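User: Sequence in, structure out. Go.
Assistant: Echoing your sequence, followed by the structure tokens.
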Amino acid sequence: MESKELYAFLPPGKKVSSQITKESANVTWCALTVDGKKIVRTSQEWWEDMSMRQYTMGLTPDALDHQTKDKRFIYSGYLAYGKITDCDHSKHRIDRVLYTGIQALGSKHRDAPAMKKLIVSYTKAVEQSSACR
């Protein structure tokens, strides 16, 4: 994943680390911390197919005021979500799609174009990973 845009969301610090914080058959969350403080969370979640607006309802009380023309990505200055419809979902009993997310809740930086680049890059990396194949 391109990380140039991610750096702007990270505060100055001495130690950056990542850790899986939740993992199940349908969900993987990873936290990115700076000096022990959680700044960014990424997510991969298998759900039934729905619109991005439907998927993000309840995930955040904040408005996600930007969406790509193909409606595959929805984002704001510090939150972004994507959708992958062509993953291998054979391990699930029903048709599922894989949703991705980046939440920079611990960052003071706000930049919608950077969040768009991040979610597109992250979603592409997930598409090419074992999570999707």
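User: And one key feature?
Assistant: The chain has three helices and seven strands.
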